[in-house]
Amino acid sequence: MKILPYQPDQSGLAYSVGTTLDRFIKLKQSDFPFASGELSQLLRDIALASKIVNRETNRAGLSNIGGAFGQTNVQGEEQQKLDVIANIRFIRALSKGGEVCAIVSEEEDAVIDLQNKSGKYVVAIDPLDGSSNIDVNISIGTIFSIYRRKTPIGSPIQEEDIMQPGTEQVASGYVLYGSSTMLVYTTGFGVNGFTYEHSLGEFFLSHPSIQAPKNGTIYSINEGTQEEWNSGIKEYIDACKSANFSARYIGSLVADFHRNLLKGGIYLYPATQKNPNGKLRLMYEANALAFIAEQAGAIATDGTKRILEIQPTSLHQRTPLFIGSEIMVTEAVEHLKKHQFSIK
């Protein structure tokens, strides 16, 4: 019997498809000796649910699941049909996985207690960010944060398990449903991005060790609200225009953040007269993206304080958000300081 050592193919006939998300998670499992595999399984549960939501979004124009659902969520915002579907899909996946004891969702008024006293983790999630863009085929996304519960395993869920600052996150990420579907996440050891290969049904590592540029030439803000801005914001945006920066604003937080993360830029959602506390939610939007931003070398602040250090006081607490390339965010904050954060 002849035995030959393995030699990697050099013919070029079969290209390498790369590392799958599942394999990557397993390789990194040693970063969390305390987790015993539960965190890895939780990330896989989220990935599975995102594949299902991706399927639903791709067929939204054909299956009558686009458009408004006819109800409003706790934010007072009109729910889209896919909002409801995505919420159900993620809650179902997280409840069946067995690693999660409680869920905070944008679409739910109260904490969802899964009655799983052995669950070690709490998940805060925006199941479908930017859902008002579904009907016009613009990129949307999912945003999630993962925390370890504080109370002993086996005991009922308490407020301290839920109301944790962003510094306590053990993982966070987002899924972008766009021209390609991507899952980007961090566990505190850098940021990695995975692109979904539809024919194989797998996420493959496509953007390893993402690092945000220190500076950029893109600013993302809803200029339709400029009459309600602080004078410092107006001054900073005028400076961006004078420098011939590009204005890029999609209206889907995940999409705007993702572009600026890769290309360099700043996303601004300041306090306004209408929303003096800001509009974006701290627990399942700002915290998750701030964790990713910092792990990629970027900055996230509410204008006065690091986002991750804000102690939440309510489930659906809102916050201003300035997030992106270090130099751009620092300059924006300097303009704010000069005008003492007054809203005109």
Overview of the structural elements:
β9 and β10 (202-207) form a beta hairpin. It contains 8 helices and 17 strands. The strands form 4 sheets. It has an 8-stranded mixed β-sheet with strand order 4-3-5-6-7-8-9-10, with helices on both faces. A 5-stranded mixed β-sheet has the order 12-11-13-17-15, with helices on both faces. It is 29% helix and 24% strand. It is an alpha+beta fold and 344 residues long. The protein has helices at 21-27, 38-58, 81-97, 159-162, 231-242, 253-263, 282-295, 326-338; strands spanning 68-72, 78-80, 100-105, 112-113, 121-129, 140-148, 169-177, 181-186, 191-197, 202-207, 218-220, 246-247, 266-269, 280-281, 299-301, 318-319, 321-324. The N and C termini lie far apart (85 Å). α2 runs antiparallel to α3 (81-97). The protein folds into 2 domains: 21-207, Fructose-1,6-Bisphosphatase, subunit A, domain 1 (Fructose-1,6-Bisphosphatase, Chain A, domain 1), CATH 3.30.540; 218-338, D-Maltodextrin-Binding Protein, domain 2, CATH 3.40.190.
Write the layout of secondary structure elements.
Elements: H1 21-27, H2 38-58, E1 68-72, E2 78-80, H3 81-97, E3 100-105, E4 112-113, E5 121-129, E6 140-148, H4 159-162, E7 169-177, E8 181-186, E9 191-197, E10 202-207, E11 218-220, H5 231-242, E12 246-247, H6 253-263, E13 266-269, E14 280-281, H7 282-295, E15 299-301, E16 318-319, E17 321-324, H8 326-338
Parallel strand pairs: 3-5, 11-12, 11-13
Antiparallel strand pairs: 1-2, 3-4, 5-6, 6-7, 7-8, 8-9, 9-10, 13-17, 14-16, 15-17
Binding site for substrate: 129-132, 222, 249, 267-269, 279
Binding site for Mg(2+) 2: 126, 129, 285
Subunit structure: Homotetramer.
